């Protein structure tokens, strides 16, 4: 086993942190954007270096490395995780590979960033969280890539809730709507295969909103009542490579083995009530993540398609000035904004990956607990499992495993 090579708050500014990434499709490209940018925008205690990217096809991974900015390539992740110039392994491959790669990387002494959802099953997530706890004792960091926590408006919303600005939370309402599966001829990519993705809209989008809601409210879901549906049970096979979220359709057809949509209600530890909807079948909705929280003293409202804005209603303001007020989250005092552009010069989706990279690099340098940790990812996985169990039992209220 190799020792972790870079830890400690006193590492000199120029100390490199070698990153090795597995996978280079949509999420890999988004993470690469974060790694390319982060050290040029934020003042970091370690200097991320894009050491190597890994994919099975030698020509395709070489092309991806050149396009995305990686210095070297590997075609087997086992070789990537033991490279001397890699101290952090960033996992952007499909869910069925997460557990094996993350555990091997942690055992090789590396820090790990793993895309969401943490795993395809609770058992895998438990094994990963165990490995992360053991690695933590050796000074390593393991974090889950729930990037929407890093939208400045969401970090601000969490602060406003924690500061008591909306009082005790009563309602949490979250929807995450996409439409790339409305077409029944959209092909069977890995995201529609339970063996590879674990679940459908539930794990892909539901995992995000479960984490985000819990993050903003600072509370955990204790039980759920759920329905899931697969509206298009059979689709054409994929002919060729995945491009973005889709690809070319072939002649043969095969079964969709995951949900197209999941709808569930939930109770939080505080007693607050929540509702969640995750679908890739909402015609016209491209990446619409909306969140509203109602408390005893006010409300917050957010729409990812307008991610620089947070709406705040203060219940103590009456008369002519009552109502939701727009906060334009681009001030230098807002989370992450000190390093970007002057007020009003907006940020977008890609910036969340630079923010994620910043937070991870800072945690590694400081040796501090990462957030979200693999334990946080495991808890989300347990919520997803409770949703599936409830849906199988005709929406019966189902407690989240591990909740006292
Ligand atoms: C596809 O639904 C997807 O790429 C998700 O997998 C991502 O996590 C989300 O950020 C955008 O949409």
Automatic annotation (TrEMBL):
InterPro entries: Gfo/Idh/MocA-like_OxRdtase_N (IPR000683), Gfo/Idh/MocA_oxidrdct_glycsds (IPR050463), GFO_IDH_MocA-like_dom (IPR055170), NAD(P)-bd_dom_sf (IPR036291). Residues 18-138 form the Gfo/Idh/MocA-like oxidoreductase N-terminal domain. Residues 156-300 form the GFO/IDH/MocA-like oxidoreductase domain. It holds the Pfam family GFO_IDH_MocA_C3. Keywords: Oxidoreductase. It comes from the Bacteria. This is Gfo/Idh/MocA family oxidoreductase. It comes from Streptomyces triticagri.
